[in-house]
Amino acid sequence: MRVLVTCPPMLGLIEEFIPAFESRGLECVPAKVTQVMTEAELIDLVPQMDGWIIGDDPATRKVVDAGVRGRLKAAVKWGVGVDNVDFPAFKDHGIPVENTPGVFGGEVADVALTYALGLARETYFIDREIRFRNAWPKPSGISLAGRTVAIVGFGDIGRQTARRILACGSKVIAYDPFFKPADGIPVDQGVWPERLDEADFLIFTCPLNAGTRGMFNASIIPRLKPGVRVINVARGPVIVESALVDALLSGVVHSAALDVFEVEPLPVGSPLRSFDRCIFGSHNGSNSADAVRRVSQIAIEKIARFLGVS
Questions:
Q1: Domains in the chain, start-ordered, CATH in brackets?
Q2: 4 and which of 49, 92, 246, 247 could share a cystine (Cβ 3.0–4.6 Å)?
């Protein structure tokens, strides 16, 4: 049986995982993909497969329908986010599908903290000025100690981020409609968008859904504390980028660190590229070799179980 893999982090170490497939009598089929495959590409390819380990690709009803007209019997969403997967479509066809929840909290939180420190002390900006302009800048940054950090989403990633931020001496306000206190992580519970005027940093760690899509938009700009630094390690569409650009131009937002974008890869003509103090990632927050190995093994075990060869 053939299993398609379309997840870029897993594909980066795919040679390590081929023996795990083969030991279960499965053929691993690595996709040629930078970030995501198109719906048309998937409609052509998925029906040729018995299983599919999904990245952030559009696992839409059209793709699922095409898959079951072919050989598709099971799927696993690699990682935590599931906004790209049409679970009802899989259910309607009786095709088992699961994600791998709770596996990247530490890795993504590390990146969120790195971004917060980078924006606070402008270390990325300094590096670029030295490398590309032969400059020797000494901007006065700010300390995390004594600052207030708003974290949107208090699931595994949000809690792990809060733990790291608190260790820097900051105060944390956590926004989550399903908020539950966490032992050893003393935060204030916030109700969005109240108290945003207190936040020196605004960090998005939430899933993408109807309630979070576009939650950073033009209407909240007047509520922000002037000079706030914005970080997104969640999903790109949580932020309306045109609103963020306006806030950066006005100075209400000092700078932003974005691992994710509305369109990925970030278009060459994106106005975000003009802001020297911003930090950009490549939707890579979870991609440590340790995490990739751990989650890929889980995904392989799940797809093998679904296909009856575990």
A1: 2-101+288-306 (3.40.50.720), 105-280 (3.40.50.720)
A2: 49
